[in-house]
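Can anyone check this?
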Amino acid sequence: MKGVSSALFGTNYADKLVEPVRAKIWISGRELPSAQYTLILASSLREVGLGFKPTYFAGKKDGFFHFIGGNLSAFLRKVGDLLYCPKST
């Protein structure tokens, strides 16, 4: 919980919890720009429960999934938006 609070309030505690990793990621035959990641998430589930939809585009198109890669702290700061995102069809 302290890590989530840190990310939400902009302190650096959350950044100290995870070590960034440099990764090459390929999706649909294309390489994403090389970057350092503290979060890599791919899912075919739109909602993980209790209205939390971090991968809200998942399942929108048959055979596709939703990918998120980036900074964990930045992602956690957006958690509120993911709880109230519009319903996808």
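Reply from J.R.: I decoded it. The chain has one domain: 2-83.
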